[in-house]
Amino acid sequence: MSVTQHLSYDVLNSLQEIMEDDFGFLIETFIQDSQDRLEKLHRLIGSDDFDSVRRAAHSFKGSCSNLGALRLVSLCAVLERKALVKDIANLGIDLAEIEEEFLIVHQKMLDFIA
Amino acid sequence: MAISSTVSADGAQVTIYIQGRFDFSSHQEFRNAYEKLNKTPSRFRVDLQGTSYLDSSALGMLLLLRDHAGGERADIEIVNCSQDVKKILLISNFEQLFSIQ
Amino acid sequence: MNDSRSLKILVADDTDADRLILETIVRKEGHQVFSAKNGLEAVAIFQQEHPDIVLLDALMPEMDGFDAARQIKHLAGDEIVPIIFLTSLQDTESLVRCLDAGGDDFLSKPYNRVILKAKIKSFNRMRGLHNTMITQRDQLAQHHQRLLQEQTVAKQVFDNVAHSGCLNASNVRYFLSSLAVFNGDVVVAAIRPNGNMMVLLGDFTGHGLPAAIGAMPLASTFYGMVHKGFSMSDVLREINKKLKAILPIGLFCCATMIDFNFRRKRLKVWNGGLPAGMIYRQADGSITPMRSTHLPLGVLPEKNFKDDAQFYDVEEGDRIFMWSDGIHEARNLDGDMFGEERLLEVFAKGSEPVNVFDDILASVKNFIGSGEQDDDLSMIEIRMDAPENLVHPNHYFIHRQQLSPVEWEMRFEVKPTSFKSFDPLPFLLNVLTEEPDLRGFSGSLYTILAELYSNALEHGVLNLSGNLKKSPEGFAEYYTQREKLLSKITDGFVHIYVAYSSNIEGGSLTLRVEDSGSGFDYNARQGKILSTTGYSGRGIGIVEKLCKTVRYYGSGNKVEAVFAWINDD
């Protein structure tokens, strides 16, 4: 099943309540961290180190879930599952989809802060 | 020797306690314990638990008590006697005159 | 109360954003946060800060959460440090892996503040309980240690006091339960000045220290009195009195006491509550039981205590056995008791008399089998022997002294200046009771001395007439006059002469009292029986009944009373 919602505003609102003045810093941190992770995934996808791919996807999924990026969570889960069963078909396309989704989420977050 | 006494609530019995040597030195106090009472009791107890020793003058004092209490009709118990004290009482045949325990 | 306490919480997550969120939540709950980016850092910070709770991400670089958890649990040791795994892993295998590594719980992503708060609270409560338990466990261990130490000391004191005396004499064999301090068995033995041996075997009811506490006054009374020559009745009476006073209701001491007279080859036995001891006769192998005929010590008040004993004549070589109920009550695996019948069977076997002691022990041991401890019993064997054969390694009494007679004389004069204020009787009685043989007669001796002295002083020196005492008022008047005359007296005397003579069989005490008065017609009172009438005049009658002879001489101002006794134990 595919999830279409990019961001849960419930989650973002809760986070804002918790983080208060540090909310902006949280968003920045997430963005930076996510970009690093995507880069790493990129590097890993060419190799046959499926275990590392799986773990990287799992990690990223976790942090996305904390920030309410629901579609990203779902896409990471797919990648994670594929890496688990060593299904190399179309891994590159899956990653591209994730990167694209991330750009959308990034923008939406910036909009939210503004 | 030290004499103390208690009287029952209804005044019918007086108990006299002798502490130490029972001899002539406190014969006046002994007398007072059974004479100077509001009501004449009908029963008398002499408690010798604390009595270490008894001499012949004490025997005389007991007889004085007995006469005061009615002689033949007197109701007197001598209780808590030690071995030595009991021996003297029995040698003197006092069990014929008093109830001795 | 501890729920709201501020805790130290370690957060380890390699994702910056996730870690930041957690830190903020935890801080907002009022706790102090320490952060780690990976497993290595987590362990290092744990060592440094000793947090109360640890939140660990499962998948981290350098060292993952599983290894970090294992190390942290190891470092924590006895203390409880709850570890909550942060994970979105949901498969059973991974979750089991978390628990195996030492994880106590999971928190899934996305982090829920309410849930995290609840978990922290719950784990904190658990920690509190655990710490209480550890503290109490340590206290218990300490108390137990102290108890063991106290028991060791108690046992030493007990052994010194309650199992000593002349038990190492050459004709004595004994076996004491190693649990004696806990089962209340006491054996004391001592040599009397006259050469007899007095032995007491006691079995206190109750167990443990309360039983041992009763043993102290029993032993010290026993040794104190036996060495001074008091008779068995006196010793029993005194021990009974002491135990009755100190032991709570329901606690008492079953005991057998035996006075061994080696010269006369005779036993004097008092048994209150113990199984019958046995006399094993060497001549024909027959047994004479010495049964319990009294209540145990510490039950009856003094005036009801019965000290009468049984006498048994024995031969040289006869063996006398005393035991507590450990033998009779020894149980085998089926729960049967050894009982008296089996004991009699051992005697009936007819082995050499010298081996009977060991036979009994072996028999009991075999009976118990592999059941309980086979040494929870106490038994003593004493062989009747000729006095000259007995060897007592550490008794204080020199053998030879017993056989020679003792004699001494004393003269004492009371002068007018002393009549009023000095009462010579306590002093004289004190001197007399230094003689062990006389100690049992102190009551009678006091009576005799008092009557003789008061007659000498009042009728002799003061010349008071007993006729005054014919009425109650006269009685009072007599003593008033006595006071008056005493305060005025300037001359006169009372002489007291005491001669003591004793040997192994008995002795006599001669008392002579002479006063400075004019005497009286003593022939006239010959043969008068003790009257029960009259307030006075019975003093001499009492003295006559207590003494062997009483005679007057001189003008009636001298009297001699002879008090005699036989040592029939």
Describe what you observe in this structure:
The complex is a heterotrimer of chains A (114), B (101) and C (569). Chain A is mainly α and 114 residues long. Chain A is built from five helices and no strands. Chain A has one domain (9-113): HPT domain (Four Helix Bundle (Hemerythrin (Met), subunit A), Up-down Bundle). In chain A, helix 2 (23-46) runs antiparallel to helix 3, helix 2 (23-46) runs antiparallel to helix 5 (91-113) and helix 3 (50-67) packs antiparallel against helix 4. The termini of chain A are far apart. The model of chain A has no long low-confidence stretch (mean pLDDT 88). Chain B has 101 residues and is α/β, with parallel strands linked by helices. Chain B has one domain: STAS domain (Transcription Regulator spoIIAA, 2-Layer Sandwich). In chain B, strands 1, 2, 3, 4, 5 and 6 form a six-stranded mixed sheet that branches. In chain B, strand 1 (2-7) and strand 2 (13-22) form a beta hairpin. Chain C has three domains: 8-134, 3-Layer(aba) Sandwich (Rossmann fold), CATH 3.40.50.2300; 163-396, PPM-type phosphatase domain (Phosphatase 2c, domain 1); 402-566, Histidine kinase-like ATPase, C-terminal domain (Heat Shock Protein 90, 2-Layer Sandwich). Chain C has 15 helices and 21 strands. Chain C has helices spanning 16-28, 39-49, 65-76, 92-100, 113-162, 180-183, 209-227, 232-246, 339-348, 356-368, 416-419, 424-432, 442-461, 472-488, 539-546, and strands at residues 8-12, 32-36, 53-57, 83-86, 105-107, 163-165, 172-175, 185-191, 197-204, 253-261, 266-272, 277-280, 287-290, 310-313, 319-323, 379-383, 406-414, 494-503, 506-515, 549-553, 558-566. In chain C, the strands form four sheets. Chain C has a six-stranded mixed sheet. In chain C, strands 2-1-3-4-5 form a five-stranded parallel sheet, with helices on both faces. Chain C has a five-stranded antiparallel sheet with strand order 7-16-15-12-13, with no helix packed on it. In chain C, helix 2 runs parallel beside helix 3, helix 7 (209-227) runs antiparallel to helix 8 (232-246) and helix 13 runs antiparallel to helix 15. Mean pLDDT of chain C is 85; it is low at 396-402. The chains are: A mainly alpha (114), B alpha/beta (101), C alpha+beta (569). The B-C interface holds B 23-24, 27-28, 31, 53, 55-57, 59-61, 63-64, 67-68, 80-85, 87-88, 91-94, 96-97, 101 and C 302-303, 442-444, 446-447, 450-451, 454, 469, 472, 475-476, 479, 482, 530, 532-536, 538-539, 541-542, 545-546.
